[in-house]
């Protein structure tokens, strides 16, 4: 989707005040930033990367219009020379990123930006908001899809989303992660997300009787009829009238009732009772859909602990807002700065160990087991390092030399996870279709061990450093401490 708005000013104001200072000093010096995150939402074991297409759209369209410059001038904080510079600015740097749909892990670069310092600084906020939001929703959606164990999950959250873009792009992210479709029609138009939905309780209330409402809908959509059965009483009237409409109209005319939906009450108890009534009526092919404040934990319990007879799930606010873990903590940190024609590594130090950054311009390598095809670890190396798969590979904990793992020679393969998106400001990446991203994500997730994907106390996936990178990091820590 090409955003028709010019969103170039969607940035924290300090991006501009810093850029004024850079302009006064050395606006052309190059810098490298890594975009990464520190902790998986929901205490999970992984995330699903999403939002790259919107990053491409923003960076490709980065420019300031006359009214933008006029507004900035009115703030009386920027020089005329700087405003003139902004009026002609375009992104001219390099961006490398992990492909959308990839399972990713804390402390590894999802996006790497190398550009003149003002350009690299100005894009920070937009990159973070695009990736933080969609990666959060894709990750939550994947957990819910995983819990459903092959049953369809439909995204029903638009009315609880945090405004229009959150609903539209949230539906996109949910589809990438495996949801069967969305109730958000605009996402269908813009992205090709399958759109789904039948009726609300108000539709049924608008008729004299529930039976009349069901019959009218069945005659309108005879080959795609799913009826909402909990407006009055699920068991005493809803399912009774649904079966009656199936027998009175659908079946005599060669159609079948596709499904019934329950939106309130005890989902487990009601689904079992409804399934029994449908089966006794010779309607074993009629599906049971449920919706009502569902998430991965409720779905897992319904299936495994309660033996609910449910065929698909409609999930709203807990998905579209990632309600119980609503923030994705992506950050954008400088890791190298040009000086005298050389890239000098930079590090951010903190008393909080998890906030210490990995310095230098780096590559991200996924180490795959040759025999199983499963991911062993992700390894950060400095840009000039080459991994020889015919040699033992030693990977190190990001802070401790004594914590390491040796992967025997000839037992592994290496994938370079960061692919070029922009080179010298030119888009060099062929954006895949949404269906291609979705299929790729499913394939990539299959390479991650189930122990890492479990909901409670998942096994931690290795994101380690090469010896050379670890030595650089420890030397810089020693220098600044």
UniProtKB/TrEMBL annotation:
Reaction catalysed by this enzyme: 5-phospho-alpha-D-ribose 1-diphosphate + nicotinate + ATP + H2O = nicotinate beta-D-ribonucleotide + ADP + phosphate + diphosphate
Name used for this protein in its record: Nicotinate phosphoribosyltransferase
Species classification: Bacteria, Bacillati, Bacillota, Erysipelotrichia, Erysipelotrichales
NCBIfam families: NAPRTase_put, PRK09243.1-2, PRK12484.1
CDD domains, sorted: NAPRTase_A
Modification comment: Transiently phosphorylated on a His residue during the reaction cycle. Phosphorylation strongly increases the affinity for substrates and increases the rate of nicotinate D-ribonucleotide production. Dephosphorylation regenerates the low-affinity form of the enzyme, leading to product release.
Keyword Transferase carried by entry: yes
Family the UniProt entry places it in: Belongs to the NAPRTase family.
GO molecular function: nicotinamide phosphoribosyltransferase activity; nicotinate phosphoribosyltransferase activity
Top-tier EC class: ligase
Residues in Nicotinate phosphoribosyltransferase C-terminal domain copies: 362-473
Membrane-spanning ranges: none
GO BP: any one term: NAD+ biosynthetic process via the salvage pathway
């Amino acid at each position: 989707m090409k955003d028709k708005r010019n969103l170039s000013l969607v940035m924290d104001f300090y991006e501009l005040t810093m850029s004024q200072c850079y302009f006064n000093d050395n606006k052309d010096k190059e810098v490298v930033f890594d975009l990464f995150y520190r902790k998986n939402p929901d205490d999970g074991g992984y995330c699903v990367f999403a939002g790259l297409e919107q990053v491409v759209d923003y960076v490709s369209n980065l420019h300031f219009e006359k009214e933008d410059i006029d507004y900035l001038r009115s703030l009386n904080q920027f020089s005329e020379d700087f405003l003139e510079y902004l009026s002609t600015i375009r992104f001219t740097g390099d961006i490398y990123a992990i492909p959308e749909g990839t399972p990713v892990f804390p402390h590894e670069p999802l996006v790497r930006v190398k550009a003149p310092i003002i350009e690299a600084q100005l894009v920070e906020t937009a990159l973070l908001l695009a990736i933080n939001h969609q990666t959060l929703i894709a990750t939550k959606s994947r957990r819910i899809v995983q819990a459903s164990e092959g049953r369809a999950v439909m995204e029903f959250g638009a009315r609880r989303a945090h405004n229009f873009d959150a609903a539209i792009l949230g539906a996109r992210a949910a589809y990438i992660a495996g949801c069967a479709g969305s109730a958000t029609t605009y996402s269908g138009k813009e992205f090709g997300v399958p759109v789904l939905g039948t009726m609300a309780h108000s539709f049924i209330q608008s008729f004299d009787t529930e039976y009349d409402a069901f019959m009218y809908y069945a005659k309108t959509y005879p080959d795609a009829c799913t009826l909402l059965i909990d407006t009055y009483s699920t068991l005493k009237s809803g399912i009774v009238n649904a079966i009656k409409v199936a027998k009175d109209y659908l079946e005599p005319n060669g159609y079948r009732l596709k499904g019934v939906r329950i939106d309130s009450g005890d989902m487990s108890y009601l689904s079992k009772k409804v399934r029994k009534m449908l089966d006794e009526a010779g309607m074993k092919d009629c599906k049971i859909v449920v919706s009502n404040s569902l998430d991965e934990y409720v779905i897992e319990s319904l299936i495994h602990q309660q033996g609910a007879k449910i065929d698909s799930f409609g999930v709203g606010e807990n998905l579209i807002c990632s309600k119980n873990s609503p923030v994705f903590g992506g950050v954008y940190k400088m890791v190298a700065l040009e000086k005298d024609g050389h890239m000098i590594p930079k590090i951010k130090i903190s008393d909080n160990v998890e906030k210490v950054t990995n310095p230098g311009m780096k590559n991200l390598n996924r180490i795959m087991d040759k025999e199983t095809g499963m991911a062993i670890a992700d390894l950060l190396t400095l840009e000039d390092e080459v991994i020889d798969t015919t040699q033992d590979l030693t990977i190190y904990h990001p802070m401790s030399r004594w914590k390491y793992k040796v992967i025997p020679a000839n037992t592994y393969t290496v994938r370079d996870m960061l692919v070029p998106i922009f080179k010298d400001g030119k888009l060099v990446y062929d954006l895949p279709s949404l269906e291609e991203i979705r299929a790729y994500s499913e394939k990539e997730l299959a390479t991650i061990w189930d122990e890492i994907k479990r909901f409670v106390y998942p096994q931690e996936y290795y994101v380690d450093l090469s010896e050379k990178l670890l030595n650089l990091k420890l030397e810089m820590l020693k220098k600044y401490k």
